[in-house]
Amino acid sequence: MGDAELDYNVVFPEPHLAESHWHGQKEPVVILLGWAGCKDKHLAKYSSIYNEQGCITIRYTAPWKAVFFSEAFGSKELLEIARKLLDLLYDYEVESNPILFHMFSNGGFMLYRYIIEHLQREEHLSTLGVVGTILDSAPGNQNVIGSVRALNATLGPETHTVLRYPILAVFTCMVFLLRVVLYSLTKYIHKNHYDAMLDDPTSWPQLYLYSRADKVIAHRDVELMVRARKQRGVRVESVDFINSDHVSHNRLFPEEYSIRCVTFLEYCLKNSTGIKRKHVSM
Q1: Do the Cβ atoms of 101 and 135 come closer than 8 Å?
Q2: Which pLDDT value is given to residue 280?
Q3: What are the angstrom distances between the C-alpha of 240 and each of 15, 198, 246?
Q4: To which H or E segment does residue 164 belong?
Q5: Which of 61, 76, 140, 171 shows its CA 20 to 30 Å from the CA of 114?
């Protein structure tokens, strides 16, 4: 599904499936925020993990130009998109359901940053029942080489060399200048996503899924964020898949990945709302 302003997909479980898992209680809503350049057919593989458990899922991937270029200049594009995503909960009348965010790479994490800003600033949104977040291959911080690799992968083989190399050159110079050389000054105008979320005031549990083999997001950045969240008293779980590449943990370890996600969701629900369900069979 989708509309002219927001290209998203929402899936509601079959009534008998939702009933068998949640026994008449409100189904969890899992909002999946894709990595830059992510195709919906790839994101759908992740949403199926939750659909099979009787959950409602909303899939969305921010435009790659907004992630790589608009965000670097402090544009409000992602902030506006974040607000529209939250509006979907009211449009589909699921605003009182438990909510879990599952995000991928910096593309999903940047959007999540602005979702948090809306939740903190707008009083009526504070009643939304967010129970937890899962972060896959995120977040990364000031990794110029990793950012260039991500953009190159996003452009894909269909982008002609005549366009590819100028785009990569402009992006490299822009990121190095704004996010490294001048960042000590520009951060007072617009903090990058990583620094902004080091001060994230939310306290719901988090699960970090990452790998030291990731060539886009440095595992040290993920581990630093994990330590920072723990220092703020947040319950954090982290899993280093060791050998899997960027956003490839589910592809290489599908069974473990699914079990980790569903078990974490169950924990979040049990400890935030008291919702109980049957034991998961994967």
Answers
A1: no
A2: 42
A3: 36, 20, 12
A4: helix 161-176
A5: 171
Q: How many residues does the chain have?
A: 282
- Would the pTM count as exceeding 0.70? yes
**What integer pLDDT is reported at residue 2 of this predicted model?**
42
Residues of the chain short of pLDDT 50, as ranges, are 1-4, 274-282
Which residue do the tokens 């992510």 mark? 38
Give residue 24's region: left, alpha or beta (phi > 0; psi -120 to 50).
Answer: left
Helices and strands (DSSP H and E) totals, the chain: 12, 7
Could you read off the pLDDT of 42-72 as tens digits, one per residue? 999 999 999 999 999 999 999 978 887 767 6
| Long-range Cβ contacts of 38-47 (<8 Å, 24+ apart) | 38/104, 38/107, 38/247, 40/9, 43/104, 44/9, 45/250, 46/102, 46/104, 46/250, 47/9, 47/11
